[in-house]
Amino acid sequence: MKKFNDLKFEQSLYPTRGIGARMKFDNGWGISVIQNEFSYGGWEGLYEIAVLDSKEEISYESGLTEDVVGWLDEEGVTHWMGKIQNLK
Q1: What does the alpha-carbon distance between residue 4 and residue 21 come to, in Å, rounded to a whole number?
Q2: Coil, helix or strand for 81?
Q3: First CA to last CA distance, the chain
Q4: Which residues, at least 6 apart from 42, have a Cβ–Cβ distance to it below 8 Å?
Q5: CA distance 67 to 18
Q6: What are 54-71's pLDDT values in tens digits?
Q7: Could you read off the pLDDT of 2-24 as tens digits, one per residue?
Q8: What does the DSSP 8-state code read for residue 76?
Q9: Distance between CA atoms of 17 and 34, rounded to whole angstroms?
Q10: C-alpha span between 45 and 32 (Å, rounded)
C-alpha cells in the first residue's frame, strides 16, 4: 500500500504558493493532496485531499466522500490513501 511518504510534492504558484502531489493507484483511482493558504488547514500545516477518477479529475462518485477532505496530517492522508486504494 502506498503511504504519505510515497507522494512526490512539487511547489505550486497557482492559484497560490503552496505544495501539491498527485498519485494514481493500480485500481484506477487516485488522490490529489495540496497544502496552501486556501486549502482546508493549509495555513496550519495540514493537508487537503481529493479523490481522483481514472481521468485524474476530482470525483464525487467514489462512495467515500462527497467533497474534498481537509485538516489532515500525514497519518490522515495515509488513511485516505488506503481507503482509495481499496476501492473497486
Answers
A1: 10
A2: helix
A3: 15
A4: 18, 34, 35, 36, 48, 70
A5: 21
A6: 999 999 999 999 999 999
A7: 999 999 999 987 767 899 999 99
A8: H
A9: 11
A10: 16
